[in-house]
Design a protein that fits this description.
With 275 residues, the protein is of the alpha+beta class. It folds into three domains: 64 residues; 111 residues, Immunoglobulin-like (Sandwich), CATH 2.60.40; 85 residues. Helix content is 20%, strand content 43%. It is built from three helices and 16 strands. The strands form five sheets. Strands 1, 6, 7, 8 and 10 form a five-stranded antiparallel sheet that branches. The protein has a three-stranded antiparallel sheet with strand order 4-5-9, with no helix packed on it. Helix 1 packs antiparallel against helix 2. It starts with a helix and ends with a strand. The relative contact order is 0.13.
Length: 275
Amino acid sequence: MGIASLILGIIGLLISLTIFKDLSLILTILGIVLGIIAIIKKKSKGMAIAGVILSVLGLILCFSVDSNNSSTGTGITNDSGSGTSTVSVTTEKVKVEKVGLTKTGDLVVKVTNNNKGSVCLSSITANFKDSSGNFALKKEAEDSFVVIPAESYTLVYFWGFDENYSQYPEVSFKTELANISDDFAATGIKLSSNNTGSQIAVTLKNNSGKEIKSSRVVVIYYKDNEVVGAKTGYDDSTVSNGSDAYINVDYPEDSNYDNVSFDKFEVYYINASFE
């Protein structure tokens, strides 16, 4: 048990520095429990103590780093030359505004980054109020760790299949910056897409300078310039620098799972993770 506690403590501590906080939480708690049992039974006591200490450190990091959220941070901006530099960014310069509702009731919003550097948003939250001005509902956007380059924007959506957002006359938004933004590509990503007749085929070109382990995009569908659908697509394959990730995104459906016609679509970058 002492050896197991030590191993769990080491692994849990390392994972606590990544985006997989839930897994780290489980491993560190197990490491603490097994370590305490080993100490009580006086078996592998030295390893058990070390395991408990490492597990506690990992547990602390789970809550401190995954307070992954802050209002200020740093982002990457393109220099006038060929390189990049780091600048200060703040959520005060991130604006969220409603775009429309899809046929399934999803709320699509436009998120504009007015900072001079890129931002990685760990969460985008909507707080809805009823006709009396009372708080009624809190929802988080479908995608988290949304990367937006400097002075640019993206579109995301709030899942609305079992909600009726139109009943709320007032909504406010809150964004949080991720403290682990270095785990995601902020520059060097290029998107291209093709409507195959059955789905949207997206090619994500990785020129970030690093190997990416997963990537996500969102496709927003329109009919007569009104939003009718929103779908997320992702690829979990490893893509080396200079290579492509391929992502298939389904066509939109309505609440009865029938196909929704559209005459235009737009593809937006969500993130590409190095971890």
